[in-house]
Amino acid sequence: MNMILQNLYLRENGICEKGTSALAEALAINTNLQNLDLRNNGICEKGASALSEALKTNMGLQNLDLCGK
After folding, report:
1. Mean pLDDT over residues 31-59, rounded?
2. What is the distance between the terminal CA atoms of the chain, rounded to a whole angstrom?
């Protein structure tokens, strides 16, 4: 488990659905990450749903930015 990473900025990286699902899996068990910037990554309904499920168990994330396409 990550004990150091608190900020992750991945804006405009073309993450899309597959990458978002992988991030959601990590978020479900990583409670140290506080800020996640996913702006302009083409995240659609499936990816947003995966993130939503992960955040049900992750109480550490304080800021999640999903703005843009």
Report:
1. 94
2. 30
Instruction: Compute the residue count for the chain.
Output: 69
For residue 11 the two structure tokens come to 């804006």
Which region, left, alpha or beta, applies to residue 59 given φ > 0 means left and ψ of -120 to 50 means alpha?
Answer: alpha
23-35 confidence digits (pLDDT tens): 999 999 988 999 9
Return the structure tokens found at 57: 């168990």
Phi-psi region of 12 (alpha: psi -120 to 50; beta: other; left: phi over 0): left
The full 3-state SS of 33-66, as one line of letters, equals CCEEECCCCCCCHHHHHHHHHHHCCCCCCCEEEC
Instruction: Tokens 């843009």: give the residue.
Output: 68
Does residue 69 have a pLDDT over 80? no
